């Protein structure tokens, strides 16, 4: 089991959120990333935004975001989203990501998405680490059936339920599926909304890494609104 100092604390800095504290420009994202690292985060998850403030997988905005964050946080791995909801057409998504010239350290690969095997293989060939992201029990079953754990850096268990009891049950079920398959990859767990904190408490107690950030929740463990990502990271650090 990893020690507290070794465990991953990822911050999901931005994404599909209307929270005014969420960074969008490359410069805002880099400044927030630096502050979150100072607060204890050791893995950064980013979304890139175009000049209209819309999420994008286009090479230019992606490169600007990675460059700005890497300049401020040179020793902290960057995970750049490849989320299909940003570009639902799998061919178009693959074309956009094929054009990336500035590469992240990691990409999250949602196992239930169409085209994710090809996208993951493309980036792995270019030296990018791939995280196997499980958003449901069905995703966990797909992942173990593929039987390719050697291709991945870690498993990310994402319990999407707003209700804490359902989120905890699904996190437990996904973890059990992975364990029964004998897959011993590092695990990172996160939830959404206020359920984030119950999911993270469970994961931390079991020796896993955790993720927080405005992409997932803008609430503190007591239900009060967070001022931003830094306050969320500070609260999460207390769980490890």
What does this 3D model show about the protein?
39% of the residues lie in helices and 17% in strands. It is of the alpha/beta class and 240 residues long. The strands form 2 sheets. The protein has an 8-stranded parallel sheet with strand order 5-2-1-10-9-8-7-6. The longest helix is centred in the last third of the chain and has 17 residues, at 164-180.
Mean pLDDT: 96
Q: How far from one another are the termini?
A: 13 Å
> How much helix, percentage-wise, in residues?
25-40%
SS class: alpha/beta
Order of helices and strands: EHEEEHEHEHEHEHEHEH
Runs in which pLDDT lies below 50 for 5 or more consecutive residues are none
Tell me the β content.
15-25%
> What's the story with the biggest beta sheet?
8 strands, parallel
**What would the principal axes of the Cα set say about the shape?**
globular
Give the beta-strand count: 10
Number of helices: 8
* Radius of gyration over C-alpha positions, nearest whole angstrom: 17 Å
Order of neighbouring strands in the sheet with most strands = 5-2-1-10-9-8-7-6
């Amino acid at each position: 089991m990893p020690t507290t100092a070794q465990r991953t604390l990822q911050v999901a800095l931005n994404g599909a959120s209307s929270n005014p504290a969420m960074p969008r420009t490359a410069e805002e994202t880099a400044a927030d990333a630096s502050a979150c690292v100072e607060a204890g985060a050791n893995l950064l998850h980013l979304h890139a935004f175009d000049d209209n403030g819309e999420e994008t997988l286009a090479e230019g905005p992606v490169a600007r975001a990675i460059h700005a964050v890497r300049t401020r946080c040179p020793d902290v791995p960057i995970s750049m989203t490849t989320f299909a909801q940003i570009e639902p057409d799998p061919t178009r998504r693959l074309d956009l990501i094929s054009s990336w010239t500035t590469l992240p350290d990691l990409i999250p690969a949602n196992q239930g998405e169409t085209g994710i095997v090809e996208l993951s293989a493309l980036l792995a060939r270019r030296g990018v680490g791939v995280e196997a992201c499980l958003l449901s029990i069905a995703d966990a079953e797909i992942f173990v059936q593929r039987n390719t754990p050697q291709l991945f850096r870690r498993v990310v268990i994402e319990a999407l339920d707003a209700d804490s009891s359902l989120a905890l049950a699904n996190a437990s079920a996904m973890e059990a599926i992975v364990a029964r398959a004998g897959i011993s990859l590092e695990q990172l767990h996160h939830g959404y909304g206020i359920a984030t904190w119950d999911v993270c408490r469970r994961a931390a107690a079991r020796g896993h890494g955790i993720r927080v950030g405005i992409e997932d929740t803008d609430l503190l463990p007591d239900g009060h609104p967070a001022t931003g990502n830094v306050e969320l990271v500070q609260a999460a650090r207390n769980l490890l």
